[in-house]
Design brief:
Length: 357
């Protein structure tokens, strides 16, 4: 009887320990900050080697490694945008109708067959919903859509998109997509187009007070809060899922009429981080009502800050391009923007950066 009681006691202890371990494992798995690796990619134009620039970091942007060296698919290709799906998979787009993908953390990059286009077509923006629903935009009204991870593509046709340089594309979900930019020729205004049905039909968004006189660069969203941003610090914001819009701008930025908002990311509906011309970094914590300047941006000065992305509310990376040379830089904050560090200088323009989405 004593032996059985001892065995029962021992079994109980073992089961309790296993339960505690399981609870701990489940807690780790439920914590996105523990589960998500600090993997980040950045892309830019060709450098002195004449290969498009792809840089990779596995430690949140502290150290960077060049990828795609001697890959002929990158020869002469200026890369404009990058989208990191997970630790292994990322997509990049660029000049000459180029779409690239890695599935092995960048050890190899393969060119994906896009719809045929003239060589002057430039792909400039990519947005994804999950791992297989892909939207890409570019010059001459180009919009591609794939629902099977790039195996097949549909080229979107719409009069609203014709003769447009679609600088930004943003998929809110699989049905709601924004295209923003300007005209290829004959018109200096911006344009905003939106679909509610996955690209089958498109409508124009015309803000009040002729706010489309400003060229638009990109769009972002968090929940029901959507923003379209662009030239001379101007933006429009909707708090009801795009039904109504308010015109606004960021005060006291550089330049004659304000610094362009080149890239903006939303941590949530209230908190946005923006990369601007003239080395300016700004953040708002109240949905754009008030903005606080961050920085100064370290490293070479006289830069357009073109790309920004964040790992969490403390860690953010910005890439920039010189306004007067072919140089670029990567900077990082680990304390919510209180201070920034120069992490890399390049001899090519840096365009965009992406943590895992």
């Amino acid at each position: 009887m004593k032996t059985k009681q001892s065995l029962f006691t021992l079994s109980t202890i073992v089961l309790c320990c296993l339960a505690i371990i399981q609870i701990g494992c489940n807690k780790d798995n439920d914590d996105p900050e523990r589960a998500k690796e600090k993997v980040v990619w950045a892309v830019g134009a060709v450098d002195s080697t004449n290969y498009g620039l792809i840089l990779f970091s596995s430690d949140g942007g502290d150290n960077w490694m060049r990828q795609g060296v001697d890959n002929q698919d990158l020869f002469g290709i200026n890369l404009s945008d990058i989208w990191a799906v997970d630790e292994k998979t990322a997509w990049a787009v660029g000049s000459e109708n180029t779409i690239l993908r890695t599935t092995d953390q960048g050890h190899t990059w393969n060119k994906i067959t896009a719809p045929p286009q003239p060589p002057e077509v430039e792909l400039v923006s990519i947005s994804m919903v999950g791992s297989s629903n892909i939207w890409i935009s570019g010059s001459y009204g180009t919009v591609y859509h794939s629902t099977d991870g790039g195996k097949t593509w549909i080229e979107i046709e719409s009069d609203i998109l014709n003769n447009k340089y679609i600088q930004g594309i943003h998929a809110v979900n699989s049905n709601e997509i924004y295209c923003v930019g300007g005209y290829e020729s004959g018109n200096t205004n911006g344009f905003i187009a939106k679909t509610y049905d996955g690209g089958q039909s498109w409508d124009s968004i015309v803000p009040s007070d002729n706010y489309n006189k400003h060229l638009w660069i990109g769009a972002a969203s968090s929940g029901n809060t959507h923003i379209v941003y662009g030239q001379e610090a101007h933006f429009i914001v909707s708090n009801d899922g795009g039904q109504t819009w308010k015109n606004d701008s960021v005060p006291d930025t550089g330049g004659t009429n304000g610094a362009d908002i080149n890239c903006l990311k939303m941590l949530d509906a209230d908190t946005w981080w923006g990369a601007f011309d003239y080395d300016e970094i700004l953040r708002t914590d109240n949905s754009g009502d008030l903005w606080s300047a961050q920085g100064p941006a370290p490293g070479p000065q006289n830069m357009w800050l073109l790309g920004i992305d964040y790992y969490n509310e403390d860690m953010c990376i910005i890439v920039g391009s010189s306004a007067s040379s072919n140089n670029g830089k990567i900077i990082k904050t680990g304390n919510g923007g209180l201070s920034w560090e120069l992490k890399q200088e390049t001899d090519a323009w840096m365009q965009k950066v992406s943590f895992i989405k």
